[in-house]
Design a protein that fits this description.
Layout lengths: L2 H12 L6 H12 L2 E5 L6 H6 L2 H4 L9 E4 L3 H14 L5 E4 L5 H9 L4 E4 L1 H10 L9 E5 L1 H6 L3 H9 L6 E6 L16 E4 L10 E7 L5 H12 L4 E4 L3 H13 L4 E4 L5 H12 L5 E4 L14 E4 L6 H8 L9 E7 L30 E6 L9 H10 L8 E6 L4 E6 H10 L12 E3 L2
Parallel strand pairs: 1-6, 1-7, 2-4, 2-5, 3-4, 5-6, 8-13, 9-11, 9-12, 10-11, 12-13
Antiparallel strand pairs: 14-16, 14-17, 15-16
């Protein structure tokens, strides 16, 4: 199969008809140059931009790790891994991050993957443990490297690069305007692709002010969410405590909401994202941890309950909507005593909410937990077959199914969940009894 045919096949499998301008230029630059600096906004398709060239760079018959991708967060590592798996390249990938089971990672690395993805601290830990041979790595990608530096990972990243003696291709990726290449990378003459400076106004994105007026901002948010209906929406706050209190208020209003911030346990964060992805949660109230690097679908609406200090974070938040040339709206909740920062344009249109309040939108879905996953040889098709045959579900009753290493989750229509759980109470899947219940 030619490279063109292979690329077309991969894009088809991802449900993409063609590459955008940034992805085309990045693909060519990464294949033709050993030092590439890519600046592109959140939501523009950067992950595919640097993964697709790897299909031509990585060699199927070459032993050892050939490429390492370093990322600031576990969520971003998992997102990149998922995209690579969907590309069906036939090349093994391993994902390593803090909080993940170390023995599981060591076993996976015993048969070296072609592509290794991970967070700085965990990757450095594996280098020190010698769980893989670092000298086989020729390509290094630092994705969201500015975020890694912001989170204090400079020493770890420098140490990682110091332990890659045969590195000959370096790719730095950022979504932040003004990002500087760190000295420790020893990058001397990079090809720079700047899709931020040239395109500050994202196509398809509209921004509107929502004045709180006599209402407080929380009441205004509730009214806005009622007005927007059941579309998946992210609500951004600056502080964890605000996320917690706001999420409680929305749930008290009967809304299908969930909170997301860095103080939550990793497992709780991952389960929250699963429920948001599959539509069981309609509204995600989050800190800037959710502004980039998460595997969540495009959405029509982003709401700034509080505005961030920096304009770049405002851009990252807005990047959760109007992605890949789609249309979306970012709403700014504004109280009378608040001064708008300079990055909010003068003359931003004001949305006037109708006096009549629509009913609260409620999700049609709930999420069930299954106590088995890939390590138990369970697949999506196994779960679909079991739930339809033994659980008496119709195809339209099943939503998104996600199979992890040791557990799985499935979205089920709310009105059929109780009957399904009763029907499968004593049934086995592939000869084994699994715990199946509504996910918490």
């Amino acid at each position: 199969m030619s490279n063109t045919e292979n690329t077309a096949s991969i894009l088809s499998g991802l449900g993409i008809s063609h590459l955008n301008e940034m992805q085309e230029e990045a693909h060519t630059a990464i294949l033709d140059h050993n030092e590439v600096f890519l600046l592109s906004p959140t939501g523009s398709g950067k992950t595919l931009a640097f993964l697709l060239p790897l299909v031509s760079i990585l060699e199927k018959d070459t032993p050892g790790v050939q490429c390492m991708i370093v990322v600031p967060t576990r969520e971003l590592a998992l997102q990149i891994e998922q995209v690579w798996r969907k590309m069906s390249t036939g090349l093994k990938v391993t994902c390593c991050y803090g909080g993940h089971d170390m023995p599981t990672e060591i076993r996976s690395l015993s048969e070296a993957p072609a592509l290794l993805i991970g967070t700085p601290g965990r990757l450095l830990d594996h280098i020190y443990r010698k769980t893989f041979v670092a000298k086989t790595i020729r390509t290094l990608i630092l994705d969201e490297f500015d975020k890694s530096l912001e989170m204090g990972f400079q020493t770890e990243m420098a140490d990682i690069m110091g332990n890659l003696p045969r590195l000959n291709r370096k790719i730095l990726v950022s979504a932040t305007l003004g990002s500087k290449i760190p000295d420790f990378t020893n990058i001397t003459s990079p090809i720079t692709l700047d899709f931020i400076g040239k395109r500050r106004q994202v196509k398809g994105l509209s921004i509107q002010l929502v004045e709180a007026g006599k209402l407080d901002k929380t009441e205004t948010l509730v009214a806005l969410l009622r007005h927007l209906g059941g579309d998946a929406t992210m609500v951004f706050c600056n502080l964890r405590d605000t996320v917690e209190s706001l999420n409680r208020r929305l749930r008290d209003e009967g809304m299908d909401s969930a909170g997301f911030h860095g103080k939550m346990e990793q497992e709780e964060r991952e389960r929250t994202l699963i429920r948001f992805r599959n539509g069981s949660v309609l509204y995600l109230v989050a800190t800037d941890l959710a502004a980039r690097g998460l595997d969540i679908p495009d959405m029509k609406h982003v709401i700034h309950f509080e505005l961030p200090m920096k304009g770049d974070e405002f851009v990252h938040r807005n990047g959760r909507t109007a992605r890949m040339e789609a249309e979306g709206t970012a709403y700014i909740l504004h109280a009378p005593d608040e001064v708008l920062p300079g990055y909010v344009r003068e003359g931003t249109p004001v949305l006037t909410l109708p006096g009549k309040k629509p009913a609260v939108a409620v999700s049609d879905w709930t999420t069930i937990y299954i106590s088995g996953g890939k390590k138990n040889k369970l697949s999506k098709m196994d779960i679909v077959g079991f739930l339809m045959q033994k659980g008496k579900l119709d195809k339209q009753d099943l939503g998104l199914i996600e199979v992890k290493d040791n557990i799985s989750f499935a979205a089920i229509k709310k009105q059929v969940v109780a009957g399904m759980l009763k029907a499968i109470a004593n049934e086995k899947m592939k000869g084994k009894k699994y715990k199946i219940e509504i996910a918490r």
